[in-house]
Write a structure and sequence with these properties.
This protein is α/β, with parallel strands linked by helices. It has nine helices and nine strands. Strand 1 (42-43), helix 2 (53-65) and strand 2 form a beta-alpha-beta unit.
């Protein structure tokens, strides 16, 4: 008898399938150009953004089904808004955690007895609903506004950036971020050169946030030999979350291809890895945003 896939297996497999959707050119589901920008998914009733793994799940679902709006809610929440989910529409599962308490292990000083168990809730996109008001199209912020928003965000972090060479990386020993000159980045017909530069720098800011004197992020015990791949996924997701916040096209790094196999190997060997990475990326972006009082320009959701 075949056992039922766990929640972690199901969610992770959906992300793996999205990465492998184009066998000849695998891509992460959060890599988009300006023709299909990412926006942080938002709940229609509470107006709160979905977090962590749910951001990825909803991005993947929107891509698979062609949803243009980042607005989601449960059946009951849409009903509260006077809307009706159309008959036959299929939901997307999002994850939430229920807490309960057990007797703490007296031999483990870190055990407070608190436990969490993952559960799912079914949500629908507003495109699957009748009666939801039509939303205005999201305007292109334009290169000047995008650059100003990103530069303000970057300046508030206090990160030291140096330029030169042809590689982008965070150097822990000097606690600096090394970036190639912007002229080395390439634009396309759908994406400005500066967006490629900014999304790459956002990736390095993700690494920068994990330094010992900041978030002290260490995957050695959790992932062993795969710790480097886990950290790279955190930085990838951090860049995607930052780019979605600031209206920047999130593009693959120049060395993206060499990492894809490592990402897939980690996800296939550990179905909880992407949950951990998404949570850590969410923590990284929250840390970076807390350093700044600058808020991204508000834009209405796409119809």
């Amino acid at each position: 008898m075949t056992s039922k896939p766990s929640l972690y297996d199901t969610v992770t497999q959906s992300i793996i399938s999205a990465i492998e959707a184009n066998p000849g050119k695998p891509a992460m589901p959060w890599h988009r150009d300006a023709t299909a920008p990412l926006f942080m998914p938002e709940n229609a009733l509470t107006k709160k953004s979905y977090q962590g793994i749910n951001t990825l799940v909803l991005w993947v679902s929107a891509e698979q089904h062609g949803f243009k709006s980042p607005i989601w809610a449960t059946y009951r929440q849409f009903a509260e808004l006077g809307c009706q989910v159309r008959k036959g529409e299929k939901s997307t599962p999002v994850v939430f955690y229920k807490s309960f308490e057990l007797t703490a292990d007296p031999e483990n000083s870190d055990d407070d007895g608190q436990r969490r168990v993952a559960r799912t809730s079914a949500v629908f996109n507003c495109a699957q609903v009748d009666g939801f008001p039509e939303l205005a199209a999201i305007p292109d912020l334009g290169p000047v506004v995008r650059a100003e928003s990103f530069n303000a965000f970057l300046a508030a972090t206090g990160a030291v950036i140096t330029h030169g060479g042809d590689r982008a990386f965070h150097q822990p020993s000097a606690d600096t971020i090394r970036m190639p000159d912007e002229t080395r980045f390439c634009g396309t017909t759908t994406m400005a050169r500066d967006e490629s530069y900014m999304s790459t720098l956002a990736h390095e800011l993700g690494h920068w946030s994990g330094a010992k004197h900041r978030l002290n992020r260490d995957f050695g015990k959790r992932f062993g030999d795969a710790a480097y791949a886990a950290e790279e996924i955190v930085a990838e997701l951090s860049a995607a979350f930052i780019s979605a916040d600031l209206g920047i096209a999130c593009t693959p790094r120049a060395d993206h291809a060499q990492y894809i196999a490592q990402y897939l190997q980690l996800l296939k060997s550990d179905s909880r890895a992407i949950f951990t990475a998404a949570a850590k990326a969410n923590q990284a972006v929250a840390y970076l945003k807390a350093l700044s009082e600058v808020q991204p320009a508000e834009t209405p959701a796409a119809a």
